[in-house]
Automatic annotation (TrEMBL):
Pfam families: Acetyltransf_10 (PF13673). This is GNAT family N-acetyltransferase. It comes from Dyella jiangningensis. SUPFAM superfamilies: Acyl-CoA N-acyltransferases (Nat). Residues 5-157 form the N-acetyltransferase domain. One of its GO terms (molecular function) is acyltransferase activity, transferring groups other than amino-acyl groups.
Amino acid sequence: MRQNLHMRLAGPGDAPAIGVLARRVVRRWILPEQPAEAAGPLLAGMSARAIRRKMADGQRFHLAFVGDVLAGVVAIREDSHVFQLFVGTRYQGRGIARKLWRRVLTDSVRRAGTRYFTLNAAIGAVPVYLRLGFEPNASAKVPRSKLVTVPMIYRVRAPRHRHGPLR
């Protein structure tokens, strides 16, 4: 079955749908491994109002749709810190997370020349991020929050020149 996948940058009008998708994924996959007191602050940051505020602050949300259904979202701030990468449960295992990651990586490198990306992975998401090329970041400061996360980093490799160095 062909997956009619298309991606685009989100706008403020997408905030309610992003919030619904993010909260569903978080409730299903992230909150079960977190302390109970982490739920409130985490979910509050996924309200439509909070998402619109993040967009107004320059944070970018890239969306993946299967047909006309929002299937995934990746969000980044300062062109270097990924703070959301969610794919709806029914769309997982189709390469959507990898495609979203590639999109935000390409966009940030093109726009800002980003050389490394950071994120704070939920414990259950660490294998996904390892497959995307991230590695644990032992030198990172662990964020002060109630969430249990693993700081990770992705280093952008220098482009290879086909004909050797320029002279």
